[in-house]
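Subgroup meeting minutes
Present: P.N., E.W., G.H.
Scribe: E.W.

1. P.N. recapped why we're keeping a running log of single-chain structure predictions: easier to compare across weeks, and new members can see raw inputs and outputs side by side.
2. G.H. added today's entry (107 aa).
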Amino acid sequence: MSNRKGYNRPVSTDILKKVPAVRRNVTTRVMGNEAFVMSLDTVKTYSMNETASKVWTLIDGVRTVRDIIRLVTDEYDVPENDCRSSVIGIIRQFSDEQLVNFPDRHD
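Output recorded in log:
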């Protein structure tokens, strides 16, 4: 997923509280540091780079976007501000491609 649309959108703190979940119509294969994802609805396939693959594997329907940012920041030892915009851009692109959604949480 090399298209970077969505990376330059303003970051709202609301998205940090959201919990992304992989849609039911999506299948995944992870090989090494790459994830290969296919939407069964659109029959589109996606090959993800290492960073997008890491974000993808952390989307579990439980972790918030903030949690995912912290985990990626820790793993790659990068400043959180730099990581935040990249992770949010990646998750927005997943959402734009209808690979993830943000189900309502009733905590």
